[in-house]
Amino acid sequence: MTAARRRGWPTSRSISPATTCRNAKIRRWSSPTSSCRRSCAVADSKTADTPDLGIVPLIRTIPDYPKPGIMFRDITTLLRDAAGFARTVDALVARYADTGIDCVAGIEARGFILGGPVARALGVGFIPIRKRGKLPYKTIAHEYALEYGTDVVEMHLDAVTADQRVLVIDDLIATGGTAEAAVQLIEKSGGMVVGCGFVIDLPDLGGRAKLESQGIETFALCAFEGD
Predict the structure, then answer these.
(1) Which domains can be identified in the chain, with CATH numbers?
(2) Closest by CA position to 2, among listed 175, 148, 215
(3) Fewer CB in 10 Å around end: N or C, the chain?
(4) Three-state secondary-structure class, residue 84
(5) pTM
(6) How far apart, in whole angstroms, are the C-alpha atoms of residue 133 and residue 157?
(7) CB under 8 Å to 99, separation ≥6 — which residues?
(8) Which residues are catalytic?
(9) What is the distance between the alpha carbons of residues 5 and 225, in angstroms, rounded to a whole number?
């Protein structure tokens, strides 16, 4: 799967939010000027894949949640900012506009919020990857390690058909366990993961490096060093 995962990718890793989408199916979001400039977390965006989108100040940091020692990066403050949300979706859409995506898989729960608009803009369908027991039909499952424990994700058996090109979307990559589990589910169903897109990368936790070592193309809009 390594060579297949890498087919059809643009050579540049730097995508401007103003990039023109060449795929005729794509619907651009309007981006009103934001009046929100909150003093929140400080991030080092050296490892991000885009120019500064101005979204880092919109991401709130909550210390010691859900356990002591965890710095939780909360994107709800980004989502409630219309311009910031639009820039986030536009940048993800621009990155994957020309990669031949057949569907977008969003990881519960914030991956649903981001993955749906991305799928709509790309003109493709959306697949939910959920926690155990949340899907009504027959499922396949995968257990994975979290930054703060373990969990299980599931996907409907018929969600992905053979040879479909799937984009995985979530809000954040930390240890990479959740995204890796999503990739496992998709590949078990015969699909091909074209890439994994995130708003936030926590590079010190090694998740991105782990995915890329397996040949999985990975993309993030900003990075928080030191977590």
Answers:
(1) 44-223 (3.40.50.2020)
(2) 215
(3) N
(4) helix
(5) 0.79
(6) 14
(7) 8, 9, 10, 165, 167, 194, 195
(8) 110, 147
(9) 27
